[in-house]
Amino acid sequence: MSTLPAHETTAASEPVSDDLFRSVFRDHAARVVVITAQGQREPVGFTATSLTSVSLKPPMVSFAVARTASVWRTLSHSARVAVHLLGQDQDDLATTFATSGINRFAGLEWRAGPHGEPLIEGCAAYLGCRVVQHVPAGDHVVVLAQVTRAQVERAGEPLLYHDGGYASVSSAPAPHSHGTLRRLR
User: Fold this and answer.
1) pTM of the prediction?
2) 10 Å Cβ neighbour count for 132?
3) Contact (CB, 8 A) for 178 and 154
4) From 16, 60, 122, 183, which residue has the greatest number of CB atoms within 10 Å?
């Protein structure tokens, strides 16, 4: 892993407040995913908007998880995870997996994947992944994972997170035009 030269990291800069940082990213639309792993006793999962495609050969993705998240203890020891890409009609599922202090799998249709990772039924697509590396990043950890299995269950509009709420993209725009965001709820 490379780092910046010392003169690049010691330059004086104004601190960025938590509120300012959040407000900048409120305007950044991101795909909503649910990431799951099998714990020793029960499955765990959380909602994320940090999924990124990292590499094509081999196929790799990354996502970030807070060190303070209830799932981190389990996730930090998991060799396998499943990444579920949500469709625009799955905002309730996203909300469930973003809620603390509940059994997120209660009443949910899911099955164990080929390596024991929990696979949620009905998601738009999923990726079965082997965790390759954890990279500390401030108050989060970036998880790098190699995709070992991928499946598209249904085509359609993705669930997005934008401006503090869930949204979707309208139908595919005509060439040279721009799609629009629609607020859900």
Assistant:
1) 0.84
2) 14
3) no
4) 60
* Total residues belonging to the chain: 185
d(C-alpha 58, C-alpha 148), whole Å: 9
Phi, then psi, of 124 in degrees rounded to 5: -65, -40
Quote the CA–CA distance of 113 and 120 in Å, as a whole number.
Answer: 10
What is the spatial distance between Cα 156 and Cα 152, in angstroms, rounded to a whole number? 10
Q: Which of 57, 59, 56, 103 is nearest to 83 (CA)?
A: 59
Residue whose structure tokens are 């949910």: 108
| Half-sphere exposure for 109 (CA within 13 Å, toward CB) | 3
43-48: strand order across its sheet:
43-48, 33-38, 80-85, 125-137, 140-152, 60-66, 52-55
Residue pLDDT, tens place only, 17-54: 888 888 888 878 899 999 999 999 999 999 999 999 99
What is the Cβ-side half-sphere exposure of residue 49, based on CA atoms within 13 angstroms?
A: 20
